[in-house]
Amino acid sequence: MVIDATLEKYIRDTKDFNHYLVKAFNEVLPYLSDFIPVYECYSSNFPKDVRKWLSEKMLLNAQAFNTKQFVQYACEATIVRYFADRFASTIEIEKKINPANKMDVDLVFKDKGFTFNMEIKCSDFNAKEKVDSTNALKIQPVGRLDGFDAILADLQELLKPVAERMSLDGIVAGRNMDNNLKDFLVSANNKFNASSTEYDLNILSVSCGDAEDMQLWYYYMFKDKGLFTSTSFYPKVEYENVDVVVLNNLYFKHYDYFSKKLLDSWDFGNCFNLIFVNPYAKQKKSAAIAELLNICPNQSQTRSHWSYILIKAFLQIIS
How is the chain split into domains, by residue range? Predict the structure, then answer.
Protein backbone atom coordinates (compact mmCIF):
# COMPACT_ATOMS: atom_id res chain seq x y z
CA MET A 1 0.00 0.00 0.00
CA VAL A 2 1.54 3.31 -1.12
CA ILE A 3 0.49 6.26 1.03
CA ASP A 4 1.04 9.92 0.24
CA ALA A 5 3.55 11.53 2.64
CA THR A 6 1.06 14.15 3.83
CA LEU A 7 -1.62 11.58 4.59
CA GLU A 8 0.86 9.30 6.37
CA LYS A 9 2.04 12.18 8.55
CA TYR A 10 -1.51 13.02 9.59
CA ILE A 11 -2.19 9.37 10.42
CA ARG A 12 1.04 8.94 12.41
CA ASP A 13 0.44 12.18 14.31
CA THR A 14 -3.00 10.96 15.40
CA LYS A 15 -2.41 9.22 18.71
CA ASP A 16 -5.86 7.78 19.36
CA PHE A 17 -5.47 4.23 18.07
CA ASN A 18 -9.26 3.83 18.01
CA HIS A 19 -9.41 6.14 15.01
CA TYR A 20 -10.74 4.10 12.11
CA LEU A 21 -7.98 5.16 9.70
CA VAL A 22 -5.22 4.73 12.29
CA LYS A 23 -6.53 1.25 13.09
CA ALA A 24 -6.60 0.40 9.39
CA PHE A 25 -3.04 1.75 9.00
CA ASN A 26 -1.65 -0.23 11.94
CA GLU A 27 -3.45 -3.46 11.03
CA VAL A 28 -3.07 -3.06 7.24
CA LEU A 29 -6.82 -3.24 6.64
CA PRO A 30 -8.38 -2.53 3.22
CA TYR A 31 -10.41 0.29 4.76
CA LEU A 32 -7.34 2.52 4.41
CA SER A 33 -6.46 1.50 0.87
CA ASP A 34 -10.10 2.11 -0.06
CA PHE A 35 -9.83 5.57 1.52
CA ILE A 36 -6.79 6.63 -0.51
CA PRO A 37 -8.80 7.40 -3.70
CA VAL A 38 -11.04 9.65 -1.58
CA TYR A 39 -7.99 11.48 -0.24
CA GLU A 40 -6.58 11.78 -3.76
CA CYS A 41 -9.90 13.16 -4.96
CA TYR A 42 -9.88 15.90 -2.32
CA SER A 43 -6.21 16.64 -2.98
CA SER A 44 -6.88 17.04 -6.68
CA ASN A 45 -10.18 18.91 -6.60
CA PHE A 46 -9.87 20.91 -3.38
CA PRO A 47 -6.10 21.32 -2.81
CA LYS A 48 -6.43 24.44 -0.64
CA ASP A 49 -8.82 22.69 1.74
CA VAL A 50 -7.36 19.19 1.97
CA ARG A 51 -5.28 19.69 5.14
CA LYS A 52 -8.20 21.31 6.93
CA TRP A 53 -10.39 18.46 5.72
CA LEU A 54 -7.97 15.84 7.07
CA SER A 55 -7.84 17.53 10.45
CA GLU A 56 -11.41 18.75 10.93
CA LYS A 57 -13.51 16.23 9.04
CA MET A 58 -11.40 13.09 8.89
CA LEU A 59 -10.48 13.91 12.51
CA LEU A 60 -6.79 13.16 12.00
CA ASN A 61 -5.71 15.36 14.90
CA ALA A 62 -4.62 15.22 18.53
CA GLN A 63 -8.12 15.05 19.98
CA ALA A 64 -9.96 11.96 21.19
CA PHE A 65 -11.61 10.11 18.33
CA ASN A 66 -15.34 10.77 17.93
CA THR A 67 -16.63 7.71 16.12
CA LYS A 68 -20.07 8.96 15.14
CA GLN A 69 -18.79 12.32 13.95
CA PHE A 70 -16.18 10.58 11.81
CA VAL A 71 -18.79 8.28 10.28
CA GLN A 72 -20.96 11.26 9.37
CA TYR A 73 -18.06 12.98 7.62
CA ALA A 74 -16.95 9.70 6.01
CA CYS A 75 -20.40 9.30 4.46
CA GLU A 76 -20.16 12.83 3.10
CA ALA A 77 -16.66 12.30 1.69
CA THR A 78 -17.68 9.02 0.05
CA ILE A 79 -20.47 10.73 -1.87
CA VAL A 80 -18.39 13.79 -2.76
CA ARG A 81 -15.66 11.57 -4.19
CA TYR A 82 -18.10 9.65 -6.40
CA PHE A 83 -19.47 12.74 -8.10
CA ALA A 84 -16.15 14.63 -8.13
CA ASP A 85 -14.58 11.76 -10.07
CA ARG A 86 -17.28 12.15 -12.72
CA PHE A 87 -17.99 15.88 -12.74
CA ALA A 88 -14.67 17.39 -11.68
CA SER A 89 -15.01 20.45 -13.90
CA THR A 90 -18.21 21.60 -12.19
CA ILE A 91 -17.90 20.18 -8.67
CA GLU A 92 -18.19 22.54 -5.69
CA ILE A 93 -18.47 21.85 -1.97
CA GLU A 94 -19.92 23.92 0.85
CA LYS A 95 -21.51 26.38 -1.56
CA LYS A 96 -24.07 29.01 -0.61
CA ILE A 97 -26.99 28.78 -3.03
CA ASN A 98 -29.81 30.39 -1.03
CA PRO A 99 -29.58 34.21 -1.14
CA ALA A 100 -31.91 34.40 1.86
CA ASN A 101 -29.26 33.15 4.31
CA LYS A 102 -25.58 32.35 4.72
CA MET A 103 -25.93 28.58 5.00
CA ASP A 104 -24.13 26.36 2.51
CA VAL A 105 -25.04 23.11 0.83
CA ASP A 106 -22.61 20.18 0.95
CA LEU A 107 -22.25 19.44 -2.76
CA VAL A 108 -23.09 21.07 -6.10
CA PHE A 109 -22.31 19.76 -9.59
CA LYS A 110 -23.67 20.14 -13.12
CA ASP A 111 -24.47 17.75 -15.93
CA LYS A 112 -26.28 18.16 -19.25
CA GLY A 113 -27.72 21.55 -18.36
CA PHE A 114 -28.91 20.52 -14.90
CA THR A 115 -27.53 21.66 -11.56
CA PHE A 116 -27.63 19.12 -8.74
CA ASN A 117 -27.57 20.50 -5.20
CA MET A 118 -27.04 17.84 -2.55
CA GLU A 119 -27.26 18.08 1.22
CA ILE A 120 -25.72 15.01 2.88
CA LYS A 121 -27.05 13.89 6.26
CA CYS A 122 -26.34 11.01 8.62
CA SER A 123 -27.86 10.47 12.05
CA ASP A 124 -25.64 9.38 14.92
CA PHE A 125 -28.28 6.73 15.86
CA ASN A 126 -27.32 7.13 19.55
CA ALA A 127 -30.88 7.26 20.89
CA LYS A 128 -32.00 4.30 18.79
CA GLU A 129 -28.95 2.22 19.63
CA LYS A 130 -29.50 2.91 23.33
CA VAL A 131 -32.99 1.43 23.12
CA ASP A 132 -31.87 -1.43 20.87
CA SER A 133 -29.15 -2.42 23.34
CA THR A 134 -31.57 -2.90 26.25
CA ASN A 135 -32.56 -6.39 27.36
CA ALA A 136 -36.16 -5.87 26.36
CA LEU A 137 -38.68 -6.87 23.73
CA LYS A 138 -39.07 -3.96 21.31
CA ILE A 139 -42.39 -3.06 19.73
CA GLN A 140 -41.75 -0.98 16.62
CA PRO A 141 -44.75 0.86 15.15
CA VAL A 142 -44.85 1.28 11.40
CA GLY A 143 -45.37 5.00 11.00
CA ARG A 144 -47.20 7.05 13.64
CA LEU A 145 -50.20 5.18 14.99
CA ASP A 146 -52.98 6.98 16.84
CA GLY A 147 -53.34 5.62 20.35
CA PHE A 148 -50.03 3.76 20.21
CA ASP A 149 -49.32 4.38 23.90
CA ALA A 150 -52.52 2.54 24.83
CA ILE A 151 -51.71 -0.25 22.38
CA LEU A 152 -48.23 -0.57 23.86
CA ALA A 153 -49.66 -0.74 27.40
CA ASP A 154 -52.00 -3.56 26.36
CA LEU A 155 -49.15 -5.44 24.68
CA GLN A 156 -46.93 -5.00 27.72
CA GLU A 157 -49.60 -6.61 29.87
CA LEU A 158 -50.37 -9.36 27.36
CA LEU A 159 -46.73 -10.24 26.68
CA LYS A 160 -45.44 -9.89 30.22
CA PRO A 161 -45.36 -13.70 30.82
CA VAL A 162 -43.46 -14.14 27.55
CA ALA A 163 -40.89 -11.53 28.53
CA GLU A 164 -40.44 -13.17 31.92
CA ARG A 165 -39.89 -16.61 30.37
CA MET A 166 -37.29 -15.06 28.07
CA SER A 167 -35.59 -13.37 31.05
CA LEU A 168 -36.20 -9.95 29.51
CA ASP A 169 -36.35 -6.78 31.55
CA GLY A 170 -39.54 -5.57 29.93
CA ILE A 171 -41.33 -4.54 26.78
CA VAL A 172 -40.58 -1.13 25.29
CA ALA A 173 -41.30 0.88 22.16
CA GLY A 174 -38.64 0.82 19.49
CA ARG A 175 -37.08 4.16 18.72
CA ASN A 176 -38.81 5.96 15.86
CA MET A 177 -36.46 8.30 14.00
CA ASP A 178 -38.97 10.17 11.87
CA ASN A 179 -38.16 13.36 13.78
CA ASN A 180 -34.57 13.00 12.58
CA LEU A 181 -35.76 12.80 8.98
CA LYS A 182 -38.01 15.80 9.57
CA ASP A 183 -35.04 17.78 10.89
CA PHE A 184 -32.94 16.74 7.88
CA LEU A 185 -35.66 17.81 5.47
CA VAL A 186 -36.23 21.18 7.14
CA SER A 187 -32.49 21.87 7.38
CA ALA A 188 -31.96 21.03 3.71
CA ASN A 189 -35.03 23.06 2.74
CA ASN A 190 -33.51 26.15 4.32
CA LYS A 191 -30.24 25.70 2.44
CA PHE A 192 -31.85 25.31 -0.97
CA ASN A 193 -32.95 28.27 -3.05
CA ALA A 194 -36.73 28.65 -2.91
CA SER A 195 -36.60 30.20 -6.39
CA SER A 196 -34.77 27.31 -8.04
CA THR A 197 -35.82 26.40 -11.57
CA GLU A 198 -36.81 23.11 -13.16
CA TYR A 199 -33.13 22.68 -14.06
CA ASP A 200 -32.01 22.81 -10.41
CA LEU A 201 -32.57 19.56 -8.53
CA ASN A 202 -32.42 19.77 -4.74
CA ILE A 203 -31.41 16.45 -3.19
CA LEU A 204 -31.29 15.24 0.41
CA SER A 205 -29.03 12.22 0.90
CA VAL A 206 -29.57 10.22 4.10
CA SER A 207 -27.06 7.58 5.18
CA CYS A 208 -28.77 4.65 6.88
CA GLY A 209 -27.84 1.40 8.56
CA ASP A 210 -28.67 -2.10 7.32
CA ALA A 211 -31.58 -3.20 5.12
CA GLU A 212 -34.00 -3.27 8.05
CA ASP A 213 -33.05 0.27 9.00
CA MET A 214 -33.48 1.50 5.42
CA GLN A 215 -36.97 0.01 5.44
CA LEU A 216 -37.77 2.07 8.55
CA TRP A 217 -36.58 5.27 6.87
CA TYR A 218 -38.89 4.43 3.98
CA TYR A 219 -41.74 4.12 6.48
CA TYR A 220 -40.91 7.55 7.91
CA MET A 221 -41.74 8.95 4.48
CA PHE A 222 -44.64 6.84 3.26
CA LYS A 223 -46.42 5.06 6.14
CA ASP A 224 -48.98 6.43 8.64
CA LYS A 225 -48.49 10.19 8.99
CA GLY A 226 -45.23 9.86 7.08
CA LEU A 227 -43.54 12.99 5.85
CA PHE A 228 -44.37 12.27 2.20
CA THR A 229 -48.06 11.45 2.84
CA SER A 230 -51.14 13.67 2.82
CA THR A 231 -51.41 13.25 6.60
CA SER A 232 -47.79 14.13 7.42
CA PHE A 233 -47.20 14.86 11.10
CA TYR A 234 -45.29 18.02 10.08
CA PRO A 235 -46.26 20.82 7.66
CA LYS A 236 -45.13 19.77 4.19
CA VAL A 237 -44.52 23.37 3.14
CA GLU A 238 -41.53 23.36 5.50
CA TYR A 239 -39.61 21.05 3.15
CA GLU A 240 -41.14 21.83 -0.24
CA ASN A 241 -37.76 22.91 -1.63
CA VAL A 242 -36.48 19.33 -1.30
CA ASP A 243 -37.18 17.54 -4.57
CA VAL A 244 -35.65 14.13 -3.93
CA VAL A 245 -34.47 11.97 -1.02
CA VAL A 246 -31.71 9.41 -1.58
CA LEU A 247 -31.42 6.68 1.04
CA ASN A 248 -28.13 4.79 1.14
CA ASN A 249 -26.47 2.27 3.46
CA LEU A 250 -23.21 4.19 4.02
CA TYR A 251 -23.66 4.36 7.79
CA PHE A 252 -23.71 0.57 7.85
CA LYS A 253 -20.66 0.36 5.59
CA HIS A 254 -18.56 2.73 7.70
CA TYR A 255 -19.68 2.17 11.30
CA ASP A 256 -17.69 -0.63 12.99
CA TYR A 257 -16.37 -1.62 9.56
CA PHE A 258 -13.74 -3.85 11.18
CA SER A 259 -16.39 -6.12 12.71
CA LYS A 260 -18.02 -6.79 9.34
CA LYS A 261 -16.90 -8.55 6.20
CA LEU A 262 -17.08 -5.43 4.07
CA LEU A 263 -15.14 -4.08 1.14
CA ASP A 264 -15.44 -0.76 -0.66
CA SER A 265 -16.84 1.18 2.29
CA TRP A 266 -15.64 4.33 0.54
CA ASP A 267 -17.31 3.55 -2.80
CA PHE A 268 -20.73 5.17 -3.24
CA GLY A 269 -21.11 3.27 -6.49
CA ASN A 270 -21.06 0.04 -4.50
CA CYS A 271 -23.76 1.13 -2.06
CA PHE A 272 -27.42 0.21 -1.94
CA ASN A 273 -29.15 3.46 -2.93
CA LEU A 274 -32.85 4.19 -3.27
CA ILE A 275 -34.20 7.42 -4.75
CA PHE A 276 -37.59 8.83 -3.72
CA VAL A 277 -39.35 11.88 -5.13
CA ASN A 278 -41.01 14.31 -2.73
CA PRO A 279 -44.62 14.31 -3.97
CA TYR A 280 -45.16 17.65 -2.24
CA ALA A 281 -42.17 19.47 -3.70
CA LYS A 282 -42.85 22.99 -4.93
CA GLN A 283 -42.05 22.03 -8.52
CA LYS A 284 -42.23 18.86 -10.58
CA LYS A 285 -38.81 18.35 -12.14
CA SER A 286 -39.24 15.18 -14.18
CA ALA A 287 -36.35 15.78 -16.59
CA ALA A 288 -33.86 16.58 -13.83
CA ILE A 289 -34.98 13.55 -11.82
CA ALA A 290 -34.61 11.33 -14.88
CA GLU A 291 -31.04 12.56 -15.30
CA LEU A 292 -30.31 11.91 -11.61
CA LEU A 293 -31.46 8.32 -12.09
CA ASN A 294 -28.94 8.04 -14.92
CA ILE A 295 -25.93 9.46 -13.07
CA CYS A 296 -26.55 8.34 -9.48
CA PRO A 297 -26.11 4.61 -8.80
CA ASN A 298 -29.42 3.31 -7.52
CA GLN A 299 -31.62 0.27 -7.15
CA SER A 300 -34.87 2.25 -7.37
CA GLN A 301 -35.81 0.99 -10.82
CA THR A 302 -34.91 -2.59 -9.86
CA ARG A 303 -36.99 -2.21 -6.70
CA SER A 304 -39.99 -1.00 -8.73
CA HIS A 305 -39.53 -3.86 -11.19
CA TRP A 306 -39.57 -6.50 -8.49
CA SER A 307 -42.52 -4.85 -6.74
CA TYR A 308 -44.41 -5.08 -10.05
CA ILE A 309 -43.49 -8.76 -10.47
CA LEU A 310 -44.60 -9.63 -6.93
CA ILE A 311 -47.90 -7.76 -7.24
CA LYS A 312 -48.61 -9.39 -10.60
CA ALA A 313 -47.87 -12.85 -9.15
CA PHE A 314 -50.13 -12.18 -6.17
CA LEU A 315 -53.01 -11.07 -8.42
CA GLN A 316 -52.62 -14.25 -10.47
CA ILE A 317 -52.82 -16.36 -7.31
CA ILE A 318 -56.01 -14.76 -5.99
CA SER A 319 -57.77 -14.47 -9.37
Answer: 1-65, 87-125+177-318, 126-173
